[in-house]
Design goal:
10-stranded mixed beta sheet, binds zinc ion, 11 helices, alpha+beta, single chain, elongated
Length: 561
């Protein structure tokens, strides 16, 4: 599961209801199988199953082996496998270099390229442009009286005239991307950022797929080099040769063909955080360590395999079953997002999607199970009431959008239901280990899910309904929300919208899924980072002028927060 920001609104207390017998679940055998699956998946050998790494490959081999034994039909694009690309990290070419007044400086120690940097070679005079801010509303202009800037290397302070606080008057103009675009329009051939302001954090040298490069080389100089730059330096030369790395993730897709018109999608991601580290989603701070992800999501993967075994021999054959072991979930639902956009069975034939993510830690005392997506079809509510068993309490959340793979299917107008036994202290830490799994608890959750699916066998294709969003599409530090689900996998310029929340500013303004927001007032939106930055500048009641790319058209749209 991705970082959890769920809010549960209703808490249904549940008694005990007699349910139809599950004759084909051999409890002893299933419990032993679950333990064997999770023990292997969470073992050190698999090194935390990070997408695109060796551990993911080993895990995928294990799952494929199991799919074969179960007799599932391959439904990937290459047997069971469906590959998907993603970019992460960077490699430096040998020519990458920076020299000031003819003297070379060491990359990594003295300076480093920023994710906004383009490749290229530049030689030129240095020119100080202050903070590089033009703020007409405040009559402030760092470029005033500066002429002949064309082709020069701009030396620019990271901060603003009144610091980098949320109360800065210049915050509309001081984000790095805005400064870079301003500099380019003034003729900059390259930019060297320095930071003399203690209120401003130095930028990081990470290259994720959330930042798109600008048109010129952009680097950051650490304090020792910055001192020189601010005093005697007159000219510089730099060559930036970076290769953004493309990696491949692997979804594993199997199929149970009952000759039915509709197919139920059963999904659980198998990837996890690898060794953790910055930007991975790890909540652990310490020496790098394997994040075994026994609960997240060894538990869901094990349940998926055993439920596939059950469904294969089930007499309820009014649906086919697509068994999806997604990867890339922890990096932003990458695998399920890719699958929903490149499905190997027609989307129109998908009846509903069942997602399992962290189902192995049912608390023995509370016995509370979270079920999300109950607003995505009218049938869920009545059904949820009938599945209660063994004293399990059920918390329901209506929204079809949340931090796991069901979101990708909800955004394709498919009813979804997501099962989750709750967060815990070991979530996204090296301590999410196999010995903490509650196997009998997981088995009772699986029985609940099977009950739901069997109860739906004769119900035909479910009706889809959109949900009001209970979860934020942006983190809580924002005062406003546009009410959209950004496409985190989108790598082009701008913020591509994957879904629209009903009744929110974007919906009211007529924005649509597929639209690409490229500007909010005077702030250019080039990627997710700049979108978030732009968003933080508005408050409730503000109206924003959006530039939106819809197909080949550019539209001006006003939205009110
Ligand atoms: Zn997770």
């Amino acid at each position: 599961m991705r970082k959890i920001t769920l809010l549960f609104i209703s808490f249904l207390f549940v008694g005990f209801n007699a349910i139809s017998q599950l004759s084909t679940f051999d409890d002893t055998k299933v419990l032993a199988n679950l333990k064997a699956h999770i023990t292997y998946l969470a073992s050190n050998k698999l090194e935390g199953r990070e997408t695109g790494k060796k551990g993911e490959e080993l895990a995928s081999k294990y799952i494929i082996e199991q799919f074969k034994k179960l007799g599932l039909e391959p439904k990937g694009t290459n047997g069971y496998i469906q590959e998907f690309p993603f970019t992460e990290g960077v490699e430096y070419g040998k020519s990458t270099a920076l020299a000031i007044n003819g003297k070379s400086y060491e990359r990594g120690k003295d300076w480093f390229p920023l994710a906004y940097s383009a490749n290229g070679s530049v030689k030129g005079d240095l020119v100080k442009v202050g903070f590089g801010i033009i703020a007409p509303s405040m009559n402030y202009n760092d470029y005033k009286d500066k002429n002949n800037l064309q082709g020069k290397i701009f030396l620019m302070e990271l901060s603003s005239p009144d610091g980098m606080t949320p109360h800065s008057k210049y915050k509309d103009y001081s984000d790095m991307r805005t400064k870079i675009d301003t500099a380019i329009s003034r003729g900059a051939a390259a930019i060297i950022f320095v930071n003399s302001d203690t209120t401003a954090d130095n930028p990081k040298g990470d290259f994720s797929n959330k930042t798109t490069p600008s048109k010129i080389p952009v680097v950051f100089a650490n304090s020792s080099l910055a001192t020189l730059l601010n005093s005697t330096a007159t000219n510089g030369s730099m060559t930036i040769d970076i290769k953004r790395l493309t990696h491949t993730g692997h979804n594993i897709i199997g199929f149970i063909d009952n000759g039915a018109k509709t197919t139920v999608v059963l999904g659980a991601h198998y990837d996890h955080l690898g060794f953790g580290g910055e930007g991975s989603g790890s909540l652990y701070r310490g020496e790098k360590a394997i994040h075994p992800g026994a609960d997240d999501n060894g538990s869901g993967t094990a349940a998926l395999l055993e439920m596939a075994r059950y469904l294969k021999s089930s007499n309820n054959k009014n649906n086919n079953y697509l068994i999806c072991s997604f990867s890339g979930e922890e990096k932003g639902l990458l695998g399920s997002n890719y699958y929903a956009k490149n499905p190997t069975i027609p989307l129109a034939s998908m009846n509903y999607m069942v997602n399992m993510d962290m189902v192995g830690r049912l608390k023995p005392d509370e016995k509370s199970l979270s079920i999300q997506g109950t607003g995505t079809s009218p049938i869920w509510h009545s059904l949820v009431d009938t599945i209660k068993r063994d004293g399990i309490k059920v918390k329901t959340t209506e929204s079809g959008i949340g931090p796991s793979d069901f979101t990708s299917f909800y955004l394709k107008d498919i009813p979804v239901i997501f099962f989750f036994t709750g967060s815990h202290n070991d979530y996204h830490k090296p301590t999410d280990t196999e010995d903490k799994i509650n196997y009998p608890g997981e088995l009772s959750v699986m029985k609940i899910i099977i009950n739901v699916m069997e109860a739906l066998n004769d119900k035909g294709k479910l009706t889809f309904t959109k949900t009001k969003e209970e979860t934020n599409d942006e983190t809580p530090r924002f005062k406003v929300t546009l009410g959209v689900v950004p496409d985190y996998a989108y790598e082009g310029e701008g913020m591509r919208i994957d879904g629209i929340s009903d009744g929110k500013p974007a919906a009211k303004a007529g924005l649509k899924a597929g639209d690409i927001v490229t500007q909010m007032d005077e702030i250019k939106v080039t990627d997710m980072m700049s979108y978030m930055k732009a968003l933080s500048k508005f408050k409730k009641g503000d109206t924003v002028n959006l530039k939106v790319k819809r197909g080949a058209e550019i539209k001006d749209i006003k939205a009110t927060f």
